[in-house]
Amino acid sequence: TLFIDSQKKVTAETETTKKKDEADRRATDQAVVVDDTDLIRKDIDSIAPIAAEYLKTATDKMQEARSSLSSTDEPKKRVENAQ
Question: What predicted TM-score, i.e. pTM, was given to this entire model?
Answer without folding.
Answer: 0.78
